[in-house]
Amino acid sequence: MEYHPTECNIPAGIYAIVDAGRDIPLVSLPAYVIIGPVVTTSFDGGCVVSQEIVFRPIGYVENDVAEMMSPEEIASRQSRIILAEYLADGLMGIDALERIVVVFYFDRVDEVWLQLHPRGDTSRPMRGVFATRTMYRPNPIGVTVAQLIRVDGNVLTVSGLDAIDGTPVLDIKPYSPTFDGNDAEIAS
Length: 188
What we know:
Blueprint: E1 16-19, E2 32-35, E3 38-41, E4 47-50, E5 59-62, H1 71-75, E6 78-83, E7 99-105, E8 115-116, E9 127-128, E10 141-152, E11 155-159, E12 168-174, H2 177-180
Antiparallel strand pairs: 1-2, 2-3, 3-4, 5-6, 5-12, 6-11, 7-10, 7-12, 8-9, 10-11
């Protein structure tokens, strides 16, 4: 593959070119990514320059759900969030909470669906990905409010988490009715 930085008005220099390497149905992904500033071809053929974004898991989910099933079935089971031991001090005070917000990465999703019937139910009208809670997202990140049952060192036992065994956890936050609940208001 050949790349010409001047096509995107990028100054001449040394750029690492990485093949995107996988086909994702229903989405035309860029053919290359340049590491340096991060430069990608945009969906309309133009160029986009942005920061590289890197997330490192802080832990992982442990439960008895090895394969995807309905979110309700997964959430009905208890799970454990095993936090990296070096981050355990960051749990100070979390045991006083009843609910937490768990942000996780759908690491086994390799498709993006820009339009779909919610939950695959063809009796429901098609919607755009951003009007659903599907895992088939451009950035496959999940967010769930879970009930905190117990904290033992770096291990949180929760219920209501709809992530399967081994799912990487990106962040944990306290649940706040003001920001996360039904009474949350949009700030102006």
